[in-house]
Amino acid sequence: MTASNVIEINDTARELRTSLAKSRRAFRSDPAPSEKTRIDRLNRLHTAIFEYKDRLIEAVDDDFGGRASAETLMIEILPILEGIRYNKKNLRKWMRKSKRHTPLMLLGAKTTVHYQPLGVVGIVVPWNFPIMLGLSPLVGVLAAGNRAMIKTSEFTPKTGALLAEMIAKHFADDEVVIVKGGVGVSTEFTKLPFDHLVFTGSTRVGRIVMHAAADNLTPVTLELGGKSPAIIHDSFPIKEAANRIAFGKGLNAGQACVAPDYILAPRAKVDEFVRAFADAFTKRYPALQDNRDYTSIITQKQRDRLLDNVRDAKEKRASVFEINPANESFEESRKLPMHVVTNVSDDMLVMQEEIFGPVLPVVAYDTLEEAISYVNDRDRPLALYYFDWDKGRAERVINETHSGGACINEVMTNVAVDDLPFGGVGSSGMGHYHGKEGFLSFSKAKGIVEKGRFDGNALIGAPWDNKYFNFFVNFQLRRFRNP
Ligand code: NAD
Questions:
Q1: For ligand 1, mutation pick of 64, 76, 149, 153 (most atoms within 8 Å of CB)
Q2: 223 catalytic, yes or no?
Q3: 295 lines ligand 1 (CB under 6 A)
Q4: What are the residue ranges spanned by the domains of the chain?
Q5: Considering the domain 229-420 in this protein, what is its CATH number?
Q6: Cα(329)–Cα(262) distance, integer angstroms
Q7: For 449-464, how does the pLDDT look when each residue is reduced to its tens digit (9 = 90+)?
Q8: What CATH class has 3-224+433-444?
Q9: In degrees, to the nearest 5, what angle opens at C-alpha 315 toward C-alphas 314 and 321?
């Protein structure tokens, strides 16, 4: 456990390759870690998080220039601890060889699947949940018996430095390595011939990363973004929907991959939604500027981007409602009030790009078919939220739309359930992690045939015109006569 499991790149590519080679050598010396070893690694991660949690909360707060500690605890720390516990509890069952059906041709043989660790897994982390999005994949990676290299985000340097210190203290430098740095480092990192690469970030960079991984035929899990809609059915109480949506949209000031990106509301109820949402938001955040419960925008550049999008919408005749409960000025601030945008159209940036901040466009619809088509006409989102007490209609919406995950009468919490696979579809990503699906993603499912002393092939093999072969083939053809 030395400081060398922290790489601050000078001669980037060479150091990264050296570090990967070291981890790979260590993996080869123990290619099938026992349950006990894996649990020991998970326990060490648990201990590390407990030891560092207060400092981690402070570091994220510093990086954001104001991040609600309750949010860091609830969204970043607790889910990892929960994930560790869930993985430990199920590990023995997941690691067990799975017995499979053996066809007649292999009479006397046994067929099984072994779940084998892949080796060294790379993990690339974005800035918005800099602890959780590094350590949550790590839980699955370690449970599946792998080693890991984690590239933290350049926009959360304090958190990255502290994670590096924490990992160096609790893990050997060939077990888990933290790599800090920006796009240059990340570019070299994603070119490494990992045994698997987990990338969490934007769809644009996801494409670049997948190209880089393709050169090594490295399999990827891409956890990307997109525009996650929330559809409110005409029969659903608007106030209730607005309350539930305000809870999710307020978290991290909307800087979450699964934040509701836009609302599809019945045309006659758009104004009622705007009022109810403003009330709900105001109750949760009566003031914003010095309110430690309301998170800042990560960088000035991101803040400018969000304001540009709002300006663009206004210029194109949208109506913008700024929810600024205490009527504060935000001139010199990294905080941003919530903006609800109505009368939106497809030519506006707010309807083209992922929002990722406190801006919420509302699209009016007339029929449920129209709302479903609206979603299906666009890129497949990471999540879809549907508000309706009618279970049949909810089932229909789930069946007729594609999204990485979904919640009914709720937003975002699908991410928090370890027993649910998490991952996008189409331009919101590919592959899954969390729980059993994470274990499977980071394992090779190796199919194995084990023959005993009896060798049927010795009887039926060439020269083919023999009685055993003829008997076998005729028997099989009779078996398969009917579809
Ligand atoms: P980003 O794509 O800009 O960066 C993510 C990571 O990729 C960073 O570590 C960065 O250093 C690295 N990177 C940047 N350019 C690169 C390149 N050319 N080659 C290789 N690596 C490169 O994303 P971000 O701004 O940090 O995060 C916001 C995005 O992440 C949003 O789109 C959001 O939806 C998405 N996100 C998705 C999930 C999910 O689980 N699906 C979770 C959080 C965030």
A1: 153
A2: yes
A3: no
A4: 3-224+433-444, 229-420
A5: 3.40.309.10
A6: 26
A7: 999 999 999 999 999 9
A8: alpha beta
A9: 10
